[in-house]
Write a sequence for this structure.
């Protein structure tokens, strides 16, 4: 019956190996941190314009990733309501923190950058970030630039 | 007229076959409880289907990863983006190549073996003998094999991907000289657990189900002669491969398309 | 003897088609309890199909098939399986499970259907193997067995659960004279010793008539003749005499239907 023992050992090793490979992929290759799975808390923010922001986009503070965007919808006043899930690792973000939508690199994906405030009270599950800065829309920037250029030019043209 | 008639009859035949296959898989799943009551049988099949396929999976994974490292470097270096090599290798493997190539290799090695085994048992009347001994061959013979195949696929795909990433690292960092730190950090920041890894696992679970289903059905449904078994084995490999590639497209557009 | 008294299997007006061909059309017969009944007929007359119909693997187009009072086509899966546990079917090829040893093949039905402890299973298997004379071969694999030995192991397996009836599909075909003699002896002795009912389907007239209590001759989709082996041997019917004596020409013609010989030769090769 020892042939059977080797067989069972082989199968056991196979299953363990497969699961280990999955774990390696999850933690070393991917960006799963164990705390994110449990312990996350939800915070919302309203924006005029979210640009290209998508669900699953990262949320950073001082450049460090602290969470991700989990839901985007619109409220009755036509504001975009963005729901973020923040990692349980960072439970000390002040209530008056600001959220702005930035672009990674020049043409990269968009993400939310948090600027910490100074209040004692911290953000908890269900809170809203009130200081928000919408995404920069390229067309508006260009038309603004052209308009200001035109303004600056006209007086001198007399 | 007879050409159209023949086409119609052929089509009806295919549809009837699909119906038989659907009823069959329902019977197999109904008998799946045997995995718990006859654990030994399941372990034996897991060995036949999983452990014995390991070698080809690991070797292929290594080579695919190494090729990705090589080709990836030469493509990225033109854009000055060679630091993203790790990301390229990892994403290619977890999203697509891992589940798909494992599926194809699995169909060829384990799938064809399953078809041949079951077909041979049918041709030598062993299945009929079991029926007459009041043992349901679907639950006794087919179900353990099906569950084992379905269970083994995601494990094999994960191993393929992991070895592939290591192969890409071997070539990229070891051979070519891409920076080790950048290789891993760009990869880790770019590969998302849910979007890439979980989706890849879901793909391999779906592929495992379909490939093993085709394999056991072709065996069970084959013409019980040696020629019939040979034809069934070929059909398994061809149909499984087409199914994997077709499903890959559907799943990719569902998972990675714009929602 | 009248087989209809105390019949274990009753078949009435059985009809079965395979594609366009009518395999059986109005077949009726009775298998008497406790006796060996032989069903003879040329190849292709559907004798194996008949066994499959009795065993419930096929459903008749019309007619009745009753085993021990139960109507087989009407049984649901669970009841059908319960009935099959009481029947044994010996396939022409033996149908042994190739990845199990002789011992494990015979133990298979016992382990599947009972919860007897291994020690008792061990005893039972050895008992059955002893009955067929293969106790010493228990460790061999099916691939190592000769045709005759494989059939004996299959026989031991078929009687593993002490069935009430065993059906033999062409048990003598393809065996050397010694093995044939062994099987012939086993079928008769086991039937009497275990009080079973045996149905032997065959085209080996001599061997079958040697051990049978009653004989049916099947052809053209129905029973052509029936009777005790002695009565069949004395029969006046030309069909019966051609089969029982192995005459090459008679009601079953030597020549396959063809156009006139002279015309065929003079007409030259077909266009």
């Amino acid at each position: 019956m020892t042939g059977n023992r080797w067989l069972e050992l082989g199968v056991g090793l196979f299953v363990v190996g497969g699961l280990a490979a999955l774990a390696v992929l999850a933690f070393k290759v991917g960006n799963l941190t164990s705390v994110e799975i449990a312990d996350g808390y939800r915070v919302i923010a309203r924006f005029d314009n979210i640009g290209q922001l998508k669900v699953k986009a990262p949320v950073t503070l001082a450049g460090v990733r602290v969470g991700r965007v989990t839901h985007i919808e619109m409220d009755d006043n036509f504001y975009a309501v963005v729901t973020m899930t923040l990692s349980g690792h960072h439970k000390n973000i002040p209530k008056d923190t600001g959220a702005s939508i930035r672009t990674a690199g020049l043409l990269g994906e968009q993400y939310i950058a948090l600027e910490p405030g100074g209040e004692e009270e911290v953000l908890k599950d269900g809170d809203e970030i009130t200081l928000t800065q919408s995404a920069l829309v390229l067309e508006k920037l260009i038309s603004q630039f052209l308009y200001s250029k035109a303004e600056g030019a006209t007086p001198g043209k007399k | 007229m007879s050409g159209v008639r023949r086409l119609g009859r052929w089509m009806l035949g295919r549809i009837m076959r699909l119906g038989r296959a659907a009823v069959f898989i329902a019977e197999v799943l109904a008998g799946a409880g045997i995995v718990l009551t006859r654990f030994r049988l399941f372990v034996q099949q897991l060995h036949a289907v999983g452990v014995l396929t390991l070698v080809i999976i690991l070797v292929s994974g290594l080579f695919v990863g190494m090729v990705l490292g090589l080709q990836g470097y030469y493509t990225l270096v033109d854009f000055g983006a060679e630091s993203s090599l790790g990301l390229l290798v990892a994403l290619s493997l977890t999203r697509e190549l891992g589940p798909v190539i494992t599926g194809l290799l699995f169909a060829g090695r384990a799938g064809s073996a399953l078809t041949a085994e079951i077909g041979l048992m049918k041709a030598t009347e062993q299945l009929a003998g079991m029926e007459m001994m009041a043992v349901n061959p679907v639950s006794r013979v087919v179900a353990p094999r099906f569950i084992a195949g379905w269970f083994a696929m995601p494990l094999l795909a994960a191993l393929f991907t992991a070895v592939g990433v290591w192969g890409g690292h071997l070539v990229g960092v070891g051979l070519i000289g891409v920076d080790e730190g950048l290789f891993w950090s760009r990869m880790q920041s770019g590969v998302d657990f849910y979007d890439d890894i979980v989706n890849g696992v879901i793909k391999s679970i779906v592929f495992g189900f379909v490939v093993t289903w085709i394999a056991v059905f072709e065996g069970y449904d084959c013409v019980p002669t040696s020629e019939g078994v040979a034809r069934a084995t070929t059909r398994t490999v061809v149909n499984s491969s087409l199914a994997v590639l077709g499903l890959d497209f559907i799943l990719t557009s569902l998972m990675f398309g714009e929602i | 003897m009248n087989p209809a008294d105390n019949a274990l299997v009753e078949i009435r007006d059985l009809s079965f088609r395979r594609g366009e061909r009518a395999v059986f059309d109005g077949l009726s017969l009775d298998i008497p309890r406790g006796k060996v009944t032989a069903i003879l007929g040329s190849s292709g007359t559907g004798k194996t199909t008949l066994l499959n119909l009795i065993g419930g693997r096929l459903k008749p187009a019309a007619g009745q098939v009753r085993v021990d009072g139960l109507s087989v086509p009407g049984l649901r899966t669970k009841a059908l399986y319960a009935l099959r546990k009481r029947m044994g079917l010996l396939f022409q090829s033996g149908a042994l499970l190739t990845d199990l040893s002789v011992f494990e093949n015979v133990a298979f039905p016992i382990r599947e259907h009972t919860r007897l402890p291994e020690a008792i299973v061990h005893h039972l298997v050895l008992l059955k193997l002893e009955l067929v004379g293969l106790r010493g071969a228990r460790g061999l694999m099916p691939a190592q067995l000769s045709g005759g030995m494989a059939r004996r192991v299959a026989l031991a397996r078929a009687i593993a659960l002490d069935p009430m009836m065993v059906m033999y599909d062409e048990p003598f075909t393809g065996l050397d004279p010694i093995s044939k003699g062994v099987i012939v002896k086993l079928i008769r002795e086991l039937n009497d010793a275990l009080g079973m009912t045996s149905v032997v389907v065959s085209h080996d007239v001599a061997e079958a008539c040697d051990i049978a209590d009653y004989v049916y001759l099947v052809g053209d989709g129905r029973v052509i003749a029936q009777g005790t082996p002695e009565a069949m041997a004395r029969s006046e019917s030309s069909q019966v005499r051609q089969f029982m004596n192995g005459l090459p020409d008679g009601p079953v013609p030597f020549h396959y239907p063809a156009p006139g010989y002279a015309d065929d030769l003079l007409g030259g090769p077909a266009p």
About this structure: Chain C has a mean pLDDT of 87. Chain C has ten helices and ten strands. The interface with chain B takes residues 55, 57, 81-82, 84-85, 87-89, 91, 93, 95-98, 108-109, 112-113, 154, 157 of chain C (CB under 8 Å). Strands of chain C lie at 7-18, 21-32, 36-40, 62-67, 70-71, 87-90, 165-169, 197-202, 214-219, 222-227.
